[in-house]
Amino acid sequence: MIVEPIINGLIAKTAHPIGCEKSVANQINYIRSKPAIIKAPKRVLVLGASSGFGLSARIALTFAGNAETIGVSLERAPTANRTGSAGWYNNLAFKHHAEKSGKLAINIQGDAFSEDVREQVIEAIETYFEGEVDLVIYSLASRIRPKPNSDCFWRSSIKPIQRPYKGHSILFEDSSWHTHTLPPAINDEIESTRKVMGGEDWESWIDTLINSESIARGCRTVAFSYIGPESTYPIYLDGTLGRAKIDLQQTSHALNLKLANFAGNAFSAVCKANVTKASVIIPGFTPYLCALYKVMKQEGLHETCIEQMYRLFADKVYSESGHVPVDGERLIRTDDWELKPYVQRQVNDILSRMNAENFAHIADYTSVKNEFLQLNGFAHDGIDYSKDIDLLKPS
Ligand code: NAI
After folding, report:
1. Tens-place pLDDT, residues 93-125
2. Which of 168, 249, 265, 355 has fewest C-beta within 10 Å?
3. Which atom of ligand 1 sits closest to the CA of residue 51?
4. Which atom of ligand 1 sits closest to the CA of residue 279?
């Protein structure tokens, strides 16, 4: 089959297997060009390992840090006439490259919220990690979470709180500009979003690992958060997402106390806004990303997920000094460059002028869309996209 990009609004419906392999290989090559992370942990569990920050963290720790990894993700496998999701191909590509370099890479595909996946992970830790993990990365981005012992779900809603939100999105499907107004969330939506994206599931994973005696001495856990600049507060920090992230950040303190019993720590790392499957669907985020990419590239400060994750682990979580720099709220900040006042001043100036006619000229829509296509295996140089490929055996 010849695989072409099919995008529905801001969601990719197809992924190119060979292009996904190239995206993973590019990240590995970047990491191979960087100094080793000497103090990196050996046995790492990544929850949400197939794309975005989780995949980049896995690559950084494997190829700069010599880690062995168990990666959990929920992805769609291909059929003979339908492509798998990008993350499905990323998992295959990562495993291939890691094993070629002599590193253990176990992929567990399934719902990370389920008991079954927890059991598979504990069994894998027993079998491959001598029963213990040194680092747990929590990088799930899910819209729903099953309620325990029931057939029902909590569903997240990305909405403002108290007042309506008016914003714009640029759809990759046809590069069109859309204006939308969202009503404020009701209490049930605020609470459901906290249940899905807050810290409760992270805490329950750590409890499960403590109860199964799978936590190694000195074990750390890191989950990713976002705060963003004032221009995004109405839809992010002051909205349902922000409430959930504050819950996640508070959970890091509770987990830090629990892991102190193992001489370990828990951190919430506040990352920069990047193009990922999860971020582009946030209302109002595509114009912000286009303005941010333009300014950060101009200023020589732009980082993709892999650059963020390398800096996070090399300079912060596993720095050579052993010191983990945190802010007054004990958060690790890798959003520091995004939030520099001179960056945000320029971003705000672009956003104030951006409209349906000029977004492609005054901001960096081209890079943002290109990065989105590449996440799904498209728009890479050196790949013959007109070639017929077997979706089940792509290489
Ligand atoms: P992503 O969509 O690229 O990755 C999400 C991962 O979660 C994938 O591996 C997916 O398979 C996995 N996943 C989702 N539901 C699952 C389930 N039920 N069971 C097992 N695996 C499941 O998302 P991204 O952007 O990398 O997000 C990861 C974290 O980073 C999120 O907490 C997000 O809020 C945070 N973050 C993202 C930023 C961004 O700009 N992309 C900025 C700051 C924080």
Report:
1. 999 999 999 999 999 999 999 999 999 999 999
2. 355
3. 3
4. 41
Pairing of strands 331-333, 153-155: unpaired
Residue at token pair 């006439």: 81
Question: Running DSSP on this structure, what letter comes out for residue 316?
Answer: I
- The answer to whether 94 touches 86, Cβ cutoff 8 Å, is no
pLDDT of residue 395 exceeding 70, the answer is no
What secondary structure letter does DSSP report for 19?
A: H
Mean local confidence (pLDDT), 367-385? 97
Does the model's pTM come out above 0.70? yes
C-alpha 9/C-alpha 167 separation (Å) is 16
CA diameter of the chain: 59
What mean pLDDT do residues 228-252 have?
98
Per-residue pLDDT tens over the stretch 313-345: 999 999 999 999 999 999 999 999 999 999 999
Nearest residue to 318 (alpha-carbon basis) of 1, 23, 41:
41
Angle, nearest 10°, between helix axes 86-100 and 17-32? 50
Top mutation candidate among 74, 88, 117, 339 for ligand 1, by most atoms within 8 Å of CB:
74
Tokens encoding 366: 């081209």
270: CA distance to ligand 1 center in Å? 13
Whats the size of the chain, residue-wise? 395
* Rounded-to-integer distance, Cα 40 and Cα 305, Å: 18
- 21-64 pLDDT, tens per residue? 999 999 999 999 999 999 999 999 999 999 999 999 999 999 99
Residue ranges and CATH numbers for the domains of the chain are: 7-375 (3.40.50.720)
236 is catalytic: yes
First to last CA, the chain: 13
